[in-house]
Write a structure and sequence with these properties.
Pfam families: MR_MLE_C, MR_MLE_N. One of its GO terms (molecular function) is magnesium ion binding. InterPro entries: DgoD-like (IPR034593), Dipeptide_epimerase (IPR034603), Enolase-like_C_sf (IPR036849), Enolase-like_N (IPR029017), Enolase_C-like (IPR029065), Mandelate_racemase_C (IPR013342), Mandelate_racemase_N_dom (IPR013341). Belongs to the mandelate racemase/muconate lactonizing enzyme family. Keywords: Isomerase, Magnesium, Metal-binding. By secondary structure, this protein is of the alpha/beta class. The protein has 2 domains: 110 residues, Enolase-like, domain 1 (2-Layer Sandwich); 210 residues, Enolase-like C-terminal domain (TIM Barrel, Alpha-Beta Barrel). Helix content is 32%, strand content 23%. The protein contains 12 helices and 15 strands. The strands form 3 sheets. The chain has an 8-stranded parallel beta sheet. Helix 6 links the parallel strand 6 and strand 7. Helix 2 packs antiparallel against helix 3, helix 5 crosses helix 6 and helix 7 packs parallel to helix 8. The longest helix is centred in the N-terminal third of the chain and has 19 residues. The N and C termini lie close together (5 Å).
Length: 355
């Protein structure tokens, strides 16, 4: 018998976070607990406003979920197909159910999910993300990230060169560059990529608008650096045409509807000769721990979304010197979560019927 509970929650950021599309100090989220015969699994939906989901849409969706017809939690394909077909869109809240279900079955099997997916244990060097800001703030953030091997730098505004100059005043570390669709002219984008190649840049993430397909195809054919699709790659069907516009894809659980589809996306991308990046939103350690279970499939790791919030209700794999180390705990790898101690925001709901 399944029981599904959820708690609205607001992730409070440590600093103002700015990208090419705007700035924010918090992120709405919904935390989920799924119980089956005394075992419980946890998940979450993190929903930056620019993607169209909210606490209201997530709670409305979860109130419609009825898992009473399902008697076997290992029937993940059928369960998640049902969840996916409840309503179009809503990828983050669908991911919350997927993560909780996988956490649950990992615990029932007494296995970390990487083993459930047939993947080896691997230490994961994650990048540290630095948002668009003034030169002084950029230098401060770079110093704070001193233990990380890689820095992910947000560009796409009107001060790209100022930001990179500020970074390079502090460090010569390899950079992941994310323009967040901020470059509008393909010739100028190519010039910037050539310049960034000389600045020890590893790749360029989503340099142009996701719908500018002809420009992206032109740019991908000429870029001296790998181009990674992010906003342009949401779910599995997007992978099939990704090679026309990108050299790699950024998989995020909040875009893909969770671990099940993310795994399929990663395996398919690699079979197609595309490289794989594992990314995140502002998230708690629950979703970060879940994504890290697929780390062996990734070429690049950007799983630092929990580091930028100050009210993380969960604890997951340890991070030391910028490296995520698997902890071997069953499921997604959460350390003794206590649902009852998580502060409720905007009310609490328990849904689903015992059978």
């Amino acid at each position: 018998m399944f029981s599904l509970s959820f708690k609205p929650y607001t992730l409070q950021k440590k600093h103002v976070f700015r990208i090419a599309g705007g700035a924010r100090t918090s992120t709405p989220a919904v935390l989920v607990r799924l119980r089956f015969e005394g075992v419980e699994g946890f998940g979450e939906a993190s929903m930056p406003p620019r993607y169209g989901e909210s606490i209201a849409t997530a709670t409305d969706f979860l109130q419609r979920v009825d898992l009473s017809p399902f008697r076997d939690p290992f029937n993940t394909e059928e369960i998640l197909h049902y969840v996916d077909k409840l309503a179009p869109g809503n990828p983050a809240v669908k991911a919350s159910v997927d993560i909780a279900l996988h956490d649950l079955i990992g615990k029932m099997l007494h296995l970390p999910l990487r083993s459930y997916f047939g993947l080896p244990q691997k230490e994961l060097p994650t990048s540290k993300t630095i948002g668009i800001d003034t030169a002084d703030i950029i230098r401060e953030r770079v110093r704070e990230a001193g233990n990380f091997r890689f820095l992910k730098i947000k560009l796409g505004g009107d001060n790209d060169r100022e930001i990179i100059n500020a970074v390079r005043e502090e460090t010569d570390k390899p950079l992941y560059i994310d323009a967040n669709q901020g470059w509008k002219n393909r010739e100028e984008a190519l010039e910037k990529i050539a310049w960034l190649r000389e600045e020890n840049t590893v790749f360029i993430e989503q340099p142009m608008p996701k719908n500018a397909l002809s420009d992206m195809e032109w740019l991908a054919a000429r870029s001296p650096l790998p181009i990674v699709g992010d906003e342009g790659i949401q779910r599995f069907p997007d992978v099939m045409s990704a090679g026309n516009y990108y050299h790699a894809i950024n998989i995020k659980l909040m875009k893909s509807t969770g671990l099940r589809e993310a795994y399929k996306m990663a395996v398919t991308a690699r079979a197609m000769g595309l490289r794989v990046m594992l990314g995140c939103m502002s998230e708690t350690s629950c979703a970060i721990a879940a994504a890290s279970q697929l780390g062996a499939l990734a070429d690049w790791i950007d799983l630092d979304g929990n580091l930028g919030i100050k009210n993380d209700p969960f604890s997951g794999p340890a991070l030391q010197n910028g490296i995520i180390t698997p902890n071997g705990i069953a499921g997604v790898g959460l350390v003794k979560p206590d649902w009852d101690k998580i502060e409720i925001e905007n009310g609490d709901r328990t849904i689903g019927r015992k059978t």
